[in-house]
Amino acid sequence: AGAEVRVEGGGSYVAASGGEVYVPDLAGRARLHARWGIETCSFTVMVPDNDDPQPRLEGVMCERAPVYAVR
């Protein structure tokens, strides 16, 4: 199964192979968080304000969150 991608203040979606995820109705600036297994990362996207109903946001990098061991 792919990573779960959650929009801050919104819904959750599953990433396809290669890390692509379709998030409907995303507009403006949005912060997203991904989780796969125990790993997590976060990223911010800026959706262009134009007439494209499905803008492709290229070059977005998910920054891995630190994992702390708990004893």
3D structure, described in words:
- The chain has 71 residues and is mainly β.
- It is 0% helix and 35% strand.
- It has strands at residues 4-7, 12-14, 29-36, 39-46, 63-64.
- Strand 1 and strand 2 form a beta hairpin.
List keywords for this structure.
35% strand, 71 residues, single chain, mainly beta
Helix content estimate: under 10%
* Distance between the amino and carboxyl termini: 29 Å
Order of helices and strands: EEEEE
Number of strands: 5
Write the layout of secondary structure elements.
Layout: E1 4-7, E2 12-14, E3 29-36, E4 39-46, E5 63-64
Antiparallel strand pairs: 1-2, 1-3, 3-4, 4-5
Concise synopsis of the structure shown:
The chain is an all-beta fold. The chain is built from no helices and 5 strands. A 5-stranded antiparallel β-sheet has the order 2-1-3-4-5, with no helix packed on it.
